[in-house]
Amino acid sequence: MPAHQELGAKFLEWQRYELDAERCPVRNLLDRIGDRWSMLLLAALSAGPKRFSALNRAVPDISKRMLTQTLRTLETDGLVHREVTPSVPPSVTYSLTPLGEDFAGPLLGLVRWAETHFAEVMAARARMDAA
Amino acid sequence: MPAHQELGAKFLEWQRYELDAERCPVRNLLDRIGDRWSMLLLAALSAGPKRFSALNRAVPDISKRMLTQTLRTLETDGLVHREVTPSVPPSVTYSLTPLGEDFAGPLLGLVRWAETHFAEVMAARARMDAA
DNA sequence: CTGAATCCTATGCGATACTG
DNA sequence: CAGTATCGCATAGGATTCAG
């Protein structure tokens, strides 16, 4: 059974509860990590645990504000672990939880698709721009 | 090689061009379809071609404005095909392109993960709320 | 029926300054 | 070092109205 057919079948199920965001796992997930930074930070942490400032350097154009906020959400959802070493100055290390590592699987699928079909998407855009 | 390690390795490569959104396929893709509606509409269309108003009913809480706009982006990127039947009143049918059907694969991976681990995520949130 | 146009509000997010 | 607090802008996106 092709993936898009199975996906379609799932959609039909979601419709039964009117895609209520509280109960629909997919909408629920997308509302949390379908933002600008979450997936990128998960990818960054996949390369290994990192301290706050190291993460900030790894993703140059994120602000401290959004870095803090996004990490908090990921921690709340159990994808990221936050470890505080009480020292002076303080040190905080972030890492993937087992759940976070598991999520890296589907995320990697998305990443691979993006890399494989990037040229096709760019070509499609160019065609539309021409018209 | 575990998925999260491979993902981490890819992240290290992206860093070399400083994750420039124009050249990084992943950021490029996420900027377009990492919004509130794109993936949901792709799932809806996976169940088969649909007319504008049918899509609007299938996803009850999307506004016509965002429906139009999101479909345009998906069409521009080559994921969705727009077919106009010139009649009175006019009829417009949207469907997945082969590229769109292909994208359903990784998207399905994400969906499955969300369904499988929804309970764990909710449990993690409950723990954080308690603390 | 399928949009386009306009208006308005909410909020995502960066910049900056401050704290333990 | 690792944040928090406050501000302000830009954008997302809903509601409504108009048009072909």
Task: Describe what this molecule looks like in 3D.
The structure is a homodimer of 131-residue chains. With 131 residues, chain A is mainly α. Helices cover 65% and strands 11% of the residues of chain A. The first copy, chain A, has helices at 3-16, 25-33, 38-46, 52-58, 64-76, 98-130, and strands at 50-51, 80-85, 91-96. Chain A has a 3-stranded antiparallel sheet. In chain A, a hairpin with a 5-residue loop joins β2 and β3 (91-96). In chain A, α3 (38-46) crosses α6. The longest helix of chain A has 33 residues, at 98-130. The radius of gyration of chain A is 18 Å and the shape is globular. The interface between A and B is large, with 70 and 70 residues. Chain A binds a DNA duplex (20 and 20 nucleotides) through α5.
Give the number of helices of chain A: 6
| Oligomeric form | homodimer
Distance between the ends of chain A: 36 Å
**Strand order in the sheet with the most strands of chain A:** 1-3-2
Instruction: Please tell me how large the radius of gyration of chain A is.
Output: 18 Å
Low-confidence stretches of chain A: none
> Which chain pair shows the most residues in contact?
A-B, 70 and 70 residues
SSE order of chain A: HHHEHHEEH
* Range of helix content of chain A: 55-70%
**Major sheet size, sense and barrel closure of chain A:** 3 strands, antiparallel
Q: In terms of structural class, how would the helical and strand content of chain A be classed?
A: mainly alpha
Q: Name the average pLDDT of chain A.
A: 94
SS elements, strand count of chain A: 3
Dominant shape of chain A = globular
Residues in β-strands, percent of chain A: 5-15%
